[in-house]
Give the backbone structure.
Amino acid sequence: MVDFTVAEFETRMTLAQAAMAQAGLDAILLCTEAELRYFSGFRTQFWQSPTRPWFLVLPRDGAPIAVIPEIGADLMFRTWVRDIRTWASPDPTDDGVSLLVDVLSKYGKVGLPMGQEASLRMPLGDFYRVHEKSNVEFVDCSELIKMIRIVKSDAEIAILRKICGIGSTAFDQASDIFHTGLSLSEAFRAFKIALLQAGADDVPYLVGAAGQGGYGDVISPPDETPLQDGDVLMLDTGASLQGYFCDFDRNFAIGSATDATKQAYGLLWQATEVGLQTARAGVTCADLFHAMHTSLGGGSSNVGRYGHGLGIQLTEYPSIASFDHTVLQPGMVMTLEPSLTISKDKMMVHEENILITDDAPILLTKRAAPELPVIG
Amino acid sequence: MVDFTVAEFETRMTLAQAAMAQAGLDAILLCTEAELRYFSGFRTQFWQSPTRPWFLVLPRDGAPIAVIPEIGADLMFRTWVRDIRTWASPDPTDDGVSLLVDVLSKYGKVGLPMGQEASLRMPLGDFYRVHEKSNVEFVDCSELIKMIRIVKSDAEIAILRKICGIGSTAFDQASDIFHTGLSLSEAFRAFKIALLQAGADDVPYLVGAAGQGGYGDVISPPDETPLQDGDVLMLDTGASLQGYFCDFDRNFAIGSATDATKQAYGLLWQATEVGLQTARAGVTCADLFHAMHTSLGGGSSNVGRYGHGLGIQLTEYPSIASFDHTVLQPGMVMTLEPSLTISKDKMMVHEENILITDDAPILLTKRAAPELPVIG
């Protein structure tokens, strides 16, 4: 299980150490899946089990230190990390606390992601104990981590390009898979199989909806309702490959579509087109948001943003939103995701995945049809 | 999207309120996927996105209060929760903090899961702000939540029985799916498809390994190594249905197996048999561990436990371990998961899922063959 070269991890570590030096941090403590994987290469679905905490310490000087349950030692030894300290977890009396305190105690100021999008994936009670016993000063380092992860390497981009291609291949089979009478639940299951058959490792995320001329929400699991003539079926997939996500959706009219529905689809497609024309290095996320928002005629939306970063998480920094003034850089991988409220309980969304360059962005997904596809 | 009756949620809430009264808590704050879903019925894969925090407050008196991003309002309205307060998230200046403070400020002592297996799925910085502004006293309520969730209702058991049956059906196809020359990566993909075709909603967890006469670890993703004659292939699946997991593994010898390998398999099967004979209401987890451990001849293991609870998470309380003195009760759903170290880098595991009763446990999985199946 080696997703990247050692050189790639050394680069990530060097960037983190330079940022630590600048921020006056002695080390960084990480305890979440994405961050541990990004800096160590430790990839496992075992995070589904909430039982055990996992820690990675990045010192400003020196090599990363993994403080992990013994059950993960074999897998961690296959990464580039060489300083691996384990304990027999779960241990209700001391679940890694002493080991972690040993590592942290020699530091003064330790970064921990505490800002937007961060979680503390360890018991809060144990965190308090670590804080007290190690006597370090914990400071937020969300921004520092974000600015490293936000730009993808060529190796990361290659995987992202593949998984977006796999998603596109699966959506190309829509007219063979979806038809009137098929329950949404069966439609989801069939599409997950199509994604796996197209080469996805996993489908950690598939949400969607179907409704007459639009849908009420965009984060639901499927129910047993059969697809009907006039429905717009939307599927939004985060399939994954080597732990990297695609995140895009497609809309299909089942049987037929009204002019109003076709028009709403066209508006969203056009807003994405504006996004594609606008997104490039030097432009801010807020600029990009406003360009797309203007294209939509200032239509309101409860989604709050028109896209986001994409990588080892389904959604990453930054947000394409009026409040986000992050400047786009070459190597950022983003979703463009305009949304449109049609009526009180009806909306439509549309999404593509792109790679930011100094020039026009590179589409990682196969561009959606300019007119709403009618199938089934 | 209605997985359970309102009566079921009312029962869960009543149990929580009785426990709060006994513990002197005014309310409980929840922010993690499993806990929000357990008490509200809010089920979505949108938790894959780390961007937005989600909160559910259970008052000791009165109905639950959801404090959630607007994007989840439609789905939350389809649950039994009626008091739903939303904001346009993400909001970098105030991501639900003020709304949550409004709800919490009237309480004195608020429970929050901070113990083993708990996470804080919100930015720690925002938690500190909520703590300071609401001026409530947060106390750990992990044990309280655990003791409610640990006993499954008939409706939960029915789903768990189904998903364990689906997993068993997929494993029955092993001899059609796995053969020498097939890469582990393709074996995993084919098995995920088999699980979906058998009726699973999702396969959030599939780990495993293959090696000559055993394997080095049990939490890895697959690589491109082809299956070889003499390999033991182990697949451990957490497939899910309506958000409930099965969690069990099966071992298969590819082509042939040595006597030592067959013997190790037999030892594990026998230890599970002892587990099945021992597990019943009134017995402690530690008793159950020791019975299985004795059956294995006191063989060591780096897994640290021989099973755990099962439900809306792949692993739940309690642990079948020497340190866990939880008394088994009817309605608990557990895994029996003995493991055996064969040599320094080789181990084998075996796992079944059971329902605890006053008498012999009910197998939810189709019992593994007493002798190592040779396939491919």
